[in-house]
Amino acid sequence: GRANIGVVGLATMGGNLARNLARHGSAVALFNRSPQRTRDLMAAHGDEGTFIPTESITDFARALARPRTAIIMVKAGEPTDEVIRQLTEVFEPGDIIVDGGNARFTDTIRREAAAREHGLHFVGAGISGGEEGALEGPSIMPGGSVESYETLGPILASIAARVDGEPCVTHVGTDGAGHFVKMVHNGIEYADMQLIGESYDLLRRGAGMTPAEIADVFAAWNRTELDSYLIEITAEVLRQVDAETGLPLVDVIADRAGMKGTGTWTVQTALDLATPVTGIAEAVFARGLSTQTAPREAAQARFTEAQGYPGGTLAVTDRAAFVEAVRQALLAAKLVAYAQGFDEIRAGAARFGWDIDLAAIARIWRGGCIIRAGFLNLIAAAYDGDPADAPASLVLAPHFARLLDAAQGAWRQVVAHATLAGIPVPAFASSLAYFDGLRSPRLPAALVQGQRDLFGAHTYERTDRPGAYHTLWSGDRSEIRVG
Ligand code: NDP
């Protein structure tokens, strides 16, 4: 017999994905550049299902039933291009190459077009859930042709996470749509983690609570609308005690956050689309600031409490009330961050010609991926139905608007108190500014247009009649209509 699916690249992710496929009834062809990895996988897990190990790309292609379908799980970038070149040589028209790595969506668009020239289907599939997800059920975001999804869809559905019986996979859209949506997923993940971090900082420094006490708070929050994987693991991290020092682990970990690029891509893309994703941007910049060791040390030495700067503590008299205010602020700011992420997907879909069902995206994020949460059911409900009736922003969906009605007071208090105390809350504050920007009947954008017209004759529109206008600033200051 032949394999119905193959996996190229058998490191952590590829190996686990291959095992997941085999456990769910697929016959899986295996190939890895270094054959030892393939042998190791067979030795350790070869009895978990049907595997066809191969040690050349030609044998790999021979092992696959047609249309051949292969998932590439190698290092993103040049290695992915190299494997695509190899597969292109041995595959035939109608065959399907899936890239399950963390590719940039623009690379996926380029690769799809190139593969199409050879009559091949190329599917960029975002896969979230890390190592464990790959084995136990990830959230999968495939792009590529509708035709390829007929073959690929059932295979991916067999290995995806399930929520309420529904597999966490959907055909996101053509060419790079899947990797685009995976990118935004990661951006939202950055924002969510930053907001949780700010909440922790407020409770820790602001209210003087211990990591163990805050772990209990997060565990309690996990039984509210905030119920999510990220809140759950936050409690777990905060409870951990360092074996060596006996200190809370969080106090021993260096406060420099790393990143691998998808958050940055989300913000870069949002800038190109002129879609404000302030929560995500602040999260990326906050990680950047955390690694700026030299200026941080110098500023810590120079701008001290002795110099009259606030020292990061809050006078909290009613701790329970404060904890609840932070929870409300977190909920509101999180909603804004998700609203902004979905706006970016909508803007990307419009720009790149993808027909993306936002409700379906929210549904496949309910399980398997890092941002999985009950909250996504509410987002799916908000976007369900005719896209023409979709809310202009998630914050306007009736359920979420009521949530903001209830939370906005606490959100403002938290941002104001944090600011006075000198506790940085960039994501809380920028989300609030964004929300107030949406609500403002008049924005100073009018003044900016005036400035632009003065120095660059960029023209402006008027509130009272159509057309484009320019004031003769260096002349008699009369106004002319220019369009
Ligand atoms: P790595 O990113 O560490 O990549 C290692 C694999 O790539 C090995 O199989 C290696 O082969 C292969 N490889 C590297 N260069 C080449 C090349 N030039 N030609 C052929 N094969 C090559 O593996 P991971 O399993 O961690 O991740 C795989 C992909 O999945 C990446 O794109 C990653 O971004 C993505 N991803 C990872 C997640 C995670 O949690 N780790 C989560 C979601 C996605 P060899 O054994 O011969 O060295």
TrEMBL record:
Residues that bind NADP(+): G9, L10, A11, T12, M13, G14, N32, R33, S34, V74, K75, A76, N102
Enzymatic reactions: 6-phospho-D-gluconate + NADP(+) = D-ribulose 5-phosphate + CO2 + NADPH
Keyword NADP carried by entry: yes
Keyword field: Gluconate utilization, NADP, Oxidoreductase, Pentose shunt
Binding site for substrate: N102, S128, G129, G130, H185, N186, Y190, K260, R287, R452, H458
A GO MF label: phosphogluconate dehydrogenase (decarboxylating) activity
Catalytic-site annotation from UniProt: K182 (proton acceptor), E189 (proton donor)
Pfam families: 6PGD, NAD_binding_2
Class of the enzyme per the UniProt entry, highest EC level: oxidoreductase
Pathway entry: Carbohydrate degradation; pentose phosphate pathway; D-ribulose 5-phosphate from D-glucose 6-phosphate (oxidative stage): step 3/3
Superkingdom: Bacteria
NAD listed as a keyword: no
Residue ranges of every copy of the 6-phosphogluconate dehydrogenase C-terminal domain listed in the record: 178-474
Any GO BP annotation: pentose-phosphate shunt
Coiled-coil ranges from the UniProt annotation: none
InterPro entries (UniProt xref): 6-PGluconate_DH-like_C_sf (IPR008927), 6PGD_dom2 (IPR013328), 6PGDH_C (IPR006114), 6PGDH_Gnd/GntZ (IPR006113), 6PGDH_NADP-bd (IPR006115), NAD(P)-bd_dom_sf (IPR036291), Pgluconate_DH (IPR006183)
Entry EC no(s): 1.1.1.44
Subunit details: Homodimer.
Recorded family membership: Belongs to the 6-phosphogluconate dehydrogenase family.
Role this protein plays: Catalyzes the oxidative decarboxylation of 6-phosphogluconate to ribulose 5-phosphate and CO(2), with concomitant reduction of NADP to NADPH.
Protein name (record): 6-phosphogluconate dehydrogenase, decarboxylating
